[in-house]
């Protein structure tokens, strides 16, 4: 049965709609490096980074970014204009609200969506926080995904891990180990993290020669030679080496670390934080430093939450984590470990199914 305000579409009709959407959303920008533009310009801007920060990282060294950026936007504008209707600005929200359940990875995203549905579209919120569109109710949920905790535990206990763990302990004997893993992407804040580590050594000189930062990076959505060069210059200034790392070595690193530092400038979820907590359960119970608005931060309230743009604050949190007592570490570890162990990728899927069932049951 079709809901009020929505037209029921046949399977054949759905395929036609998808085909037409694909046609309208395909922009052929001849002569433009679309991968460069999307990965280095649009991606950061859509993650709430200020333009001057994006320009500093990428565009200032590349004279062709401005005409490329303008040309792609003009092409999309022409495509939109060809099918524009007076209420076109509401189409995305109306289309989304045809679903029974809309789930977000971060609480702020769910609140922004709900607010825009009320303020822009004029829809009403039910007593359960759902959106009512002429009798069709869409539940809005904040439900961050988890990891397969059992699989991570098994990976950490593989025979190859222990020798590498002991090798790391021997290699950095007498030193504290800070670990991080991020894509080499302006949104992930690798440069800010390196600068914060440099700030740690400046503000707390007692750590010079007694702490090491091991930052694992993976390829970003697009290549940025300037970002690589910038990170390498900071690394060279701090006097830290480069090398590749395998999966066994990474899990050994998570287990032996004295502090985990995850400071993206904007992020939905971050599985490394969950893997770190699981790995630490059988070793040091070491704390985490996290960006305060990450999707995972609500579930990691015991972590040392910071603003990655404030280098002094990040450095102070690093120092606090490195000097934390065993009792404080244990207290801060227990709750996140319980959450990570119980809110897994499997329970996440089950929770979505449960919310759908509850919605249908309430409607009967």
TrEMBL record:
A single BP term in Gene Ontology: trehalose biosynthetic process
Cellular-component GO terms for this entry: alpha,alpha-trehalose-phosphate synthase complex (UDP-forming); cytosol
GO molecular function, one term: alpha,alpha-trehalose-phosphate synthase (UDP-forming) activity
Gene3D superfamilies reported for this sequence: Glycogen Phosphorylase B (3.40.50.2000)
PANTHER family: TREHALOSE-6-PHOSPHATE SYNTHASE (PTHR10788), TREHALOSE-PHOSPHATASE (PTHR10788:SF123)
Protein name per the record: Uncharacterized protein
């Amino acid at each position: 049965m079709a809901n009020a305000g929505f037209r029921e579409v046949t399977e054949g009709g759905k395929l036609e709609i998808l085909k037409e959407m694909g046609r309208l959303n395909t922009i052929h920008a001849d002569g433009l490096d679309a991968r460069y533009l999307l990965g280095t310009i649009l991606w950061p801007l859509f993650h709430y980074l200020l333009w001057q920060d994006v320009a500093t990282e990428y565009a200032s060294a590349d004279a062709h970014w401005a005409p490329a950026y303008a040309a792609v936007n003009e092409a999309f504008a022409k495509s939109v204009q060809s099918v524009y209707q007076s209420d076109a600005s509401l189409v995305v929200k109306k289309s989304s609200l045809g679903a029974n359940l809309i789930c977000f990875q971060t609480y702020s995203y769910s609140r922004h969506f709900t607010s825009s549905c009320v303020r822009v579209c004029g829809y009403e919120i039910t007593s359960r926080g759902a959106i009512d569109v002429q009798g069709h109710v869409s539940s809005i949920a904040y439900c961050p995904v988890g990891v397969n905790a059992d699989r991570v535990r098994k990976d950490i206990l593989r025979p190859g891990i222990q020798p590498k763990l002991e090798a790391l302990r021997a290699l950095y004997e007498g030193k504290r180990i800070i670990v991080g893993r991020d894509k080499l992407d302006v949104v992930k804040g690798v440069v800010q993290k390196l600068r914060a580590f440099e700030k740690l050594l400046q503000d707390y000189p007692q750590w010079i020669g007694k702490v090491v930062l091991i930052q694992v990076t993976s390829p970003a959505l697009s290549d940025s030679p300037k970002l690589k060069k910038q990170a390498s210059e900071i690394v060279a200034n701090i006097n830290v080496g480069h090398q590749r790392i395998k999966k066994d070595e990474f899990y050994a690193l998570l287990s032996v670390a004295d502090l985990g530092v995850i400071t993206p400038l904007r992020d939905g979820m971050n599985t490394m934080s969950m893997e770190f907590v699981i790995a630490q359960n059988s070793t040091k119970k070491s704390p985490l430093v996290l960006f305060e608005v990450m999707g995972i931060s609500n579930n990691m309230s015991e972590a040392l939450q910071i603003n990655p743009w404030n280098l002094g604050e990040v450095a102070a949190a690093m120092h606090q984590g490195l000097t934390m007592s065993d009792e404080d570490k244990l207290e801060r570890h227990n709750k996140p470990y319980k959450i990570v162990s119980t809110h897994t990728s499997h329970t996440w899927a089950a929770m979505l199914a449960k919310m759908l069932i509850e919605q249908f049951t309430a409607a009967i």
